[in-house]
Design goal:
With about 250 residues, this protein is α+β, with helices and mostly antiparallel strands. Helices cover about 35% and strands about 15% of the residues. It has 2 domains: about 160 residues, no CATH class; about 70 residues, no CATH class.
């Protein structure tokens, strides 16, 4: 997952990928910009009362402790003194948490990247053109709000991003344990379904969940574990391995 590059909006609108919008940060950014110009720009309906800037900034910081990420698709660019990306929210989709194998994950990610490609009946979510007028949920994102530091609008989504940040971390593969044992219970079926045949049925391994943590990370975890088990030169220490795992967890907000 990467923040949308404000210098490449034309290319973005050619492919119209599914993006992730941090709705709270977008709203907080708008309010902060407004009150920093002047707190008097926001008043109560009755009495036209205002709040001091210091109190507004405290409220905004408190608001940022919450998260509300939604899936959207960019529709067009409104040009003006400030260019604005007009996006429409995706109202429903097949949960990523229910995907059962590697091929299903790759197919899902292909539709996230290019929603218009492939058979409509296989698309795991509804696109804006399929919505009724009552379902239209439009978000306008000023190009000035986009940066490589602020993750307000992000693209290049993969399944673990959606699970962690939109689906509240729910995963029916590991049941929120974030790892599987290929030799216990249904672990061997999970390992085979995601292409890890070499450890299927082996209880000596604990593998990062290939669904909610990611196929690439599960594969790397397997390599790192093999290196550590064999005592290869330069292999990660227990502390370094734990740091590597926690780094990935932090990326996903776990």
């Amino acid at each position: 997952m990467k923040p949308v590059d404000p210098t490449k909006l034309d290319k973005l609108l050619q492919n119209n990928p599914i993006l992730m919008l941090d709705a709270i940060e977008l709203s907080a950014k708008f309010i902060e910009t407004t009150v920093r110009r002047s707190p008097d720009f926001i008043t109560t309906k009755k009495g036209k009362k205002t709040l001091p800037l210091e109190l507004w900034l405290e409220i905004i910081e408190w608001t940022r402790e919450w998260s509300w990420n939604i899936l959207v698709q960019p529709q067009r660019l409104e040009e003006g003194s400030t260019n604005t990306i007009v996006c429409t929210a995706i109202p429903s989709w097949n949960p990523c948490a229910c995907l059962k194998n590697a091929s299903a994950v790759r197919a899902y990610e292909s539709y996230l990247d290019r929603p218009g490609d492939g058979p409509d009946e296989n698309r795991p979510f509804r696109l804006p053109q399929d919505l009724t007028e009552d379902e239209d949920w439009t978000w306008k994102v000023p190009a000035t709000a986009l940066s490589q530091e602020k993750m307000i609008l992000c693209g290049e989504l993969i399944v673990p991003d959606v699970i962690a940040l939109v689906e509240d971390g729910k995963c029916y593969t590991c049941v929120q344990g974030r790892s599987i044992c290929p030799g216990r219970g249904f672990g061997y079926q999970i390992a085979e379904g995601f292409g890890f045949y070499q450890v299927s049925g082996d209880s000596s391994y604990s593998l990062l969940c290939p669904l909610c943590i990611g196929l690439e990370y599960a594969a790397e975890d397997l390599c790192l574990t093999d290196e550590r088990n064999k005592g290869e030169e330069g292999c990660l220490t227990d502390e370094e391995y734990a740091d590597w795992v926690q780094s990935r967890f932090r990326e996903l907000g776990y």
